[in-house]
Structures are given as C-alpha cells and as structure tokens.
Amino acid sequence: MLTSKQRAFLRSKATAFEPILQVGKGGVSENMLILVEKALDARELIKVHVLENCEYTAREAADGIAEAVGADVVQVIGRKFVLFRISPENRTYDLLNFTVLEKEKEKKRDTKTTEPKSSKRPAGKPAPAAKSRYTIEKKKK
C-alpha cells in the first residue's frame, strides 16, 4: 500500500510517460496480464489506456489488473491509469527517499556528450580589474 506522498512522487514521474498498453473490446485477458507483469518487471511504473469500446471503466480495469498482478494503482485520470510494482531486478524508484536510483541517472549522463569547460580566458581578453570597497570609499571623501 502506497502513502499519499509516495503516490504523489510516482504521479509526478508518470506525467511524462505515454501509455504502453491498451485495454480494448476484449477486456482483460490472460495475455494482457502477462504483458502487464512483464512491463512492471522491466519498468516498475506503467501507464495504460482504456479504449472507449471497452466494457470496463478505467477504475474497474485498474483495480482488476492491479489485484491480478499484485500492483498498486497510483492514479486514474479519464481513460488512463498508472500502475506501480517494485521490481526486484530493475529497481528504478526509491520510495523511502523519493528519488530515482542511479541507473536512470547514468543512462541520462551517457546520452549527453559534455566536454569539460576550460577555466582559461581566451587570448586577448584581460581579466576585469577588481575594485575594492576601500578604494571607492576613499575617493568619495
């Protein structure tokens, strides 16, 4: 069971996600539950879309799927819902400290190519002259 702060943290992370699964006319089947389990093992946090021609509402589908796979419902908005389950192999979120674990941060660092900044000034530009407070006050007298 998630606390309200944990749900708020997970909701903030899920806003950028696109739905990766759809519940359609056929409803929730065994194959659908297998896909949800695999997705939760890989990502821990997933967003699912319920189509208009589905016989279930988004709340009913979210509660049924969450109960079947042992997940927590984070959020239901309109026809979309977010599920969370801790993955033993692919831990991404630390709910005690409300942080994203280092694996995710390392992936982001690898995609950016940053060069170390040089502390040297370009040739031809002198350093600005520093004015001390004492000399400014002395001139005013």
Description:
Helix content is 39%, strand content 17%. It has helices at 4-14, 30-43, 58-69, 102-111, 133-140; strands at residues 21-23, 45-50, 72-77, 80-84, 93-94, 99-100. The model has no long low-confidence stretch (mean pLDDT 81).
Order of helices and strands: HEHEHEEEEHH
- Report Rg: 26 Å
The number of helical segments is 5
| Strand-pairing-aware structural class | alpha+beta
Amount of helix? 25-40%
The counted number of beta strands is 6
Keywords:
141 residues, two-stranded antiparallel sheet, 6 strands, 39% helix
Task: Please describe the topology of this protein.
Blueprint: H1 4-14, E1 21-23, H2 30-43, E2 45-50, H3 58-69, E3 72-77, E4 80-84, E5 93-94, E6 99-100, H4 102-111, H5 133-140
Short characterization:
Helices cover 39% and strands 17% of the residues. With 141 residues, the chain is α+β, with helices and mostly antiparallel strands.
